[in-house]
Amino acid sequence: MAPNNLRIGQFADSYPPVINGVSAFVHEHHGELLARGIDAHVFTFGYTWHRRAGEMRNVWRTFGLPLGASPFRANLDIDWRAQQAARALSVLHVHEPFGIGWIAGRPRALRQRIPLVFTVHTRHDLYIPNWPRLMQRWMNWQAGRTIAAFIRHSSVTSAPSSDTVRWLQALAPDQAGKLRVIRNGIRLDHFDSMPPVAREALGVENGDPVLIYVGRLTPEKNLGVLLDAFIDAVRQGARAHLWIVGDGERRAELEKRAQTANARVRFFGTLPRLVVPSYLRAADVFVTASLSEANPVSVIEALAAGLPYAGIDSAWWSEFEPAPPGTQAGLLAKSPAELSGLICRLAADPHLRAVLGAGAKSLSRRFDIRDVTSQWLEIYRSVII
Q1: DSSP bridge partners of 286
Q2: What pTM value is reported for the model?
């Protein structure tokens, strides 16, 4: 099928102004499809006012009610305008097994015989332990059942990491042939052209190194471990600063814990995504203690800014190793206690940071949205009936 005859619809609860990795990827992918002349569409719930603030073409926002205190919105179906647009789609690309994915994606694919492509961005099994214990068994069963149903009704199911694909194979072992690893991607050029913020204006003097975390401040991100490791490193003499960009339910607790590090921890809250590259480019090391990722856009953005990483070894890091031959992009600790030592080492060794940073910049080319979208276009064309 010729590119101008393709009509691709992405269904996602996560889309700007919601801030997370899924939102960032869906937005970047949509923009790249449009730039190639593809008739691309996004279907989402809520934030109908956002289309007045520089919205890209073909984003169909159905009014949605708030889901508790979360940034997500919900409705019983997409509205009639969005339904009209969805009827002519060549491919449905569903990014959520719940919410809009379940309500609008799977039933529409079955009724109208439109090929369904399904992407799982989240290791839901690793998030569920943060819920009340009495709910966990039911939630595990329901999540597994829903995701397996989507896999079985899809033409292709993808995840952005090999670790997540192995989990999906366990949920639907008879569907292993449908599973693909397609990594997330971003616009790398944003990180080449954006000037860094002035560190001195943010209280960083004397060339002290800056560690930065970008992401939600929620339990699954393991931020208490990260903060404790940083505070311990400072007590050991590390002359470093920690910038935390993002917001969430744990912010107040983390700010209180950070008081023991005096003025060396700064919380910026949520920043517009377009200015985040400036903060990354002003920093020296990206740090995280999360054990529950798939292929986090925050790490990809840090690599694009030329930042080495420090974290705790976990299966999801496999997508960032090996770096290009002969290079290394970061350091991983075997335990939370070891993370403090890595922070001390990186803070004290600018040459090591420079070597790892060069490896990080080289590794970032693996996640160019142009290459990732090309992979998706091959899949879209292969599933059209």
Answers
A1: 212, 309
A2: 0.93
In DSSP terms, 92 is beta-bridged to 9, 116
Alpha carbons 57 and 55: distance in angstroms, whole number: 7
**CA-CA distance, 79 to 140, in Å (whole number)?**
31
Residue at 323: amino acid letter: A
DSSP structure class, residue 274: T
Q: Report how far residue 8's alpha carbon sits from residue 117's, in angstroms, rounded to the nearest whole number.
A: 10
pLDDT for 50 equals 66
Exposed, middle or buried: residue 329 (CB in 10 Å: 0-12, 13-18, 19+)? buried
pLDDT digits (tens, 9 = 90+) for 314-355: 999 999 988 787 789 999 999 988 999 999 999 999 999 999
Task: List the one residue out of 268, 260, 199, 276 whose CA is nearest residue 224.
Answer: 260
117 close to 101: Cβ distance less than 8 angstroms: no
Q: What residues contact residue 289 under an 8 Å CB cut-off, 6+ apart?
A: 221, 222, 223, 225, 226, 229, 311, 312, 336, 339
Q: 379 near 117, Cβ under 8 Å?
A: yes
